[in-house]
Amino acid sequence: MYVINRDGIQEKVLFDKISSRISVLCEGLDENFVDPAQIVQRVVTDMYPGITTVQLDELAAEIAVDAAVVHPDFVILAARLSISNLQKETHEKFSDVVKALYSDNTHPKTGAANPIVTEEFVKLVDEHAEKINSVIDYKRDFYFDYFGFKNLEKNLLLKIGNKTVERPQHMFMRVALAIHGQDLESAFKTYDYLSRHLYTHATTTLINAGTVCGQLSSFFEVQMKDDSIEGIYDTVTNCARIAKVFGSVGMSFQKIRASGSYIAGTNGTSNGIIPMLRVFNDAARFITPGSRKVKGTFAVYVEPWHADIFEFIELSRQNGEENLRARHLLLGLWIPDLFMKRVEENGDWSLMCPNECPGLDVSYGEAFEELYIRYEKAGKARKTVSAQKLWFSILDTQIESGMPFMCYKDAANRKSNQKNLGVITGSTFYANTMQYADAEEIGSCNVASIALSKCVDTKTRSFNFETLVDIVKIVVKNLDKMIDVNNYVSEETKNSALKHRGLSLGVQGLADVFLMMRYPFDSDEARKLNKDIFEHIYFAALEASNELAQASGPYPSYEGSPVSQGILQHDLWNVKGSDCLRWDDLRAKIKAHGVRNSLLVALMPTTATSVCLGNSDGIEPYKSMLYTRPAHSRDRHVINPHLVGDLIERGIWSPKIKDMLLKDNGSIQNITIIPDDLKKLYKTAWEIPQRVIIDLAADRAPFIDQSQSLNLFSAEPNYGRLSSMHFYAWKKGLKTGMQYLRTNPHEMVVINDNEKETAENVDQEVEKTADNLAAMSCSLDNPESCVSCSG
Fold it and tell me: Domain ATP-cone, which positions (predicted)?
């Protein structure tokens, strides 16, 4: 049998060479599970004459990853095979890769030169080539597991044609140099932190840094230009430009007149927001940036007083007329407190047109309530309905589609450091950034997430806050620097970024931290650590921003902001900072010099980058101890490596346990051989009381000056459960009460007999007392009365 080597030359297969290569790559893996001879045997069986050595390595990697459910070390072996394969296929010197990205890419039809990186970037690398090349450590490519590497290779590493030409370390250095330019010391430190997986920038930054595109921001908040044809299509154009360069857009539509409104210019009537949203829906469907799978997304927000609100809520339903649906948009509600009060007291709710009742969209709190009630008394409402009728329509759509998102307008504005700029009217597609935007300013955020798992010392089972603070300060300074070097998609975006300098610093791996510390997600220890982590993040972010302000001055719109008046985020929540942090000293420094950034912390989902770095997603618990990961030709099952490690240590990991996990959809609660302490530690999101998830969100919220993407989980949702969760979150003061509602009926959820009885009682209560929401909502003093809160 023969193979085709990397030079294209046919040569005889040397089976000993295959065996030796795989054996070397198995070094350090658990010999009780990973047998190189078995892998070699499968490879030899499946190979064929004329297979290339590149294909041979991929075959071996796929064979290894097929055994991912047996032991996590097979995923490591698969990664080693694939990464070494890429390294053999790419230039070792970063400077050579950059030259190729500039000179070797051509238009596939015309053959015209089509540089991927900028001439300025090439000159920078060429000027310092020897020093830059010497800093890169290619051993760190092997820090990735197979799934993380494959995600990186497919979506993020730069290509010439269809051939990947970057290694992971090349990408990290490209990002670091794009941020810092001639400041090599800072660039090399950034590279070091990225390559050690201490944090990561968002996918938009990883793709665009150093390239001709050069657009580094991820989240954008757009205000409708004007309630006119020109204003609408100008806004569509702005959103399309953002999506084209991998940005994601949030828009508020409550200022747009409702259906049936008079149009003076044409002496006609408006069709309302639904046909217009179909235009945005088609734009979102049409725009796919490049050949990547990372797509820009549009989210639209509307307040529940808008006269078209019922039709808006229906947009994401699965059934109904297609011209009344917009399934490529994410839908969110921007909810004033008054609506929640009316629902709770079973009051009436008035639907209005913003053209006939101006000012509602740009007011909040008492000012909004006074204006709204004045319009009601003046008979300005288009229609009056039961507030609970609208509420149940919202819940019905959430049960079916997981949307609309629940964001609370008054909490978002009362506790905003941008309240001096004006009223915030919506959020983004993750419901985590909340920035001011108007016709002249498009809010934008540079994004990064910290790998919290890197702050845990597993030997001592302690969390290293010094490491966390160090990472935060580096990341804040990097994100701020990106504001100055970014290639902006529009003047409106540039205006906002330079005036307000908002950042979006998030996290990933919180669930991993709890597992590594041996804290069940619903334990008191986890709750305390959760609060401590985010207080340290906010403190360190403020401290870094203050240090930047000492060097460069505060951001231009600083005066009049709460921080400029000595009011920090946790002060707006009436929460006292911990004595272990030097809050008084920091306040004094801020009073003297200000801060460089109006906003600092926003917790986003980190699905893509978490897969890359091998961490749990954002702040979420694991949805299952068994999950799938896309891997080259097909998805593979993976079992939580923390769990496998614990079961091996206890001597109870076996093929039978694996099969039971597969049978029970990733839940260990019904596996009798597994000890109770592990069952408590390894609860899934479906088995954790939602009250716990909301409490954790509320505990960290005083240290998040934007907001947090918060998904809630209910395998068997009903009005009672959802109402309980939403009102609990609202009364906790959260800005984002819920991003998605996750309702997967195939997930295993353990409910004991008492809980089943409670669930039935709740359903009966809903039917009996649909006119009295208080009967469906959890009492904060007695949350055990509802399955959603008690578990």
Answer: 1-92
Establish how many alpha carbons lie within 13 A of residue 12's alpha carbon, considering only the half-sphere containing its beta carbon: 2
Its domain, for residue 746, covers 719-790
Whether residue 409 sits in one domain with residue 318: yes
Q: 219 by DSSP, 3-state: which?
A: strand
Per-residue confidence (pLDDT) for residue 779, from 0 to 100: 36
32 domain-assigned: no
- What 3-state DSSP class applies to 315? coil
pLDDT tens-digit profile of 342-387? 999 999 999 999 999 999 999 999 999 999 999 999 999 999 999 9
Calculate the alpha carbon distances from 645 to 44, 611, 642 in Å.
Answer: 31, 19, 5
Mean pLDDT (whole number) for 239-246? 90
The string of DSSP codes covering 630-642 is EETTEEEEEE-HH
Same domain, 447 and 373: no
Query: pLDDT (tens digit, 9 = 90+) per residue, 648-702?
Result: 999 999 999 999 998 998 999 999 999 999 999 999 999 999 999 999 999 999 9
Please state whether beta strands 626-631 and 634-639 pair in parallel, antiparallel, or not at all (unpaired). Answer: antiparallel
Residues contacting residue 181 through CB under 8 Å, at least 6 positions apart: 124, 187, 485
With b meaning 16 or more CB within 10 Å and e meaning fewer, what string describes 93-105?
Answer: bbbbbbbbbbeeb
Asked if residue 101 is part of any domain, the answer here is: no
Determine contact, residues 750/669, Cβ cutoff 8 Å: yes
Show the CA angle centred on residue 779, arms to residues 774 and 785, nearest 5°: 100
What the block records as the tokens of 516 is 């590594």
Q: Is 761 exposed, middle or buried (0-12, 13-18, 19+ CB in 10 A)?
A: middle
* Gyration radius of the chain over CA positions: 27
Whether the model pTM is above 0.85: yes
pLDDT at 763 over 80: no
Helical ranges in 105-248 per DSSP H = 119-127, 129-135, 146-155, 168-180, 184-195, 203-208, 229-244
